[in-house]
Design goal:
Order of helices and strands: HHHH
Helix content: 55-70%
Strand content: under 5%
Structural class: mainly alpha
Number of helices: 4
Largest sheet: none
Number of strands: 0
Length: about 110
């Protein structure tokens, strides 16, 4: 297996910004990005249903993977964050800190 890229959130946000900044249109509006994110989540749900659910893929359907769909979601989510000047590392830190505190006794520990 070849070396896989290993990005931190800052590198992901910078790479997406480099790509988007080549185009006059720039980032889509938050409403359009929300629609795009919803589309991508739907595509992920479809793939999960095909691989792990009861709905087999039609022979005519393009072969996608859960990994591809997760990558698409990361791209659109990063566009969303960048368009609103949100640092994904900071957003994650706030979220995980809240979860670790709120849910510390919610689950059975190993």
């Amino acid at each position: 297996m070849a070396n896989q890229p290993n990005y931190n959130t800052q590198e992901i946000q910078e790479r997406v910004d480099l790509y988007i900044s080549q185009f006059k249109e720039g980032y889509f509006s938050p409403l359009s990005l929300m629609a795009r994110l919803t589309e991508e989540i739907g595509e992920l749900a479809r793939e999960v249903n095909h691989y792990y659910g009861e709905k087999p893929k039609k022979k005519t359907e393009k072969e996608n993977t859960v990994e591809e769909e997760l990558g698409d979601i990361i791209f659109v989510l990063t566009c969303f964050a960048n368009s609103l000047q949100i640092d994904l590392s900071e957003a994650f830190e706030a979220s995980i800190s809240k979860i670790e505190t709120r849910d510390k006794d919610r689950w059975t520990r190993k």
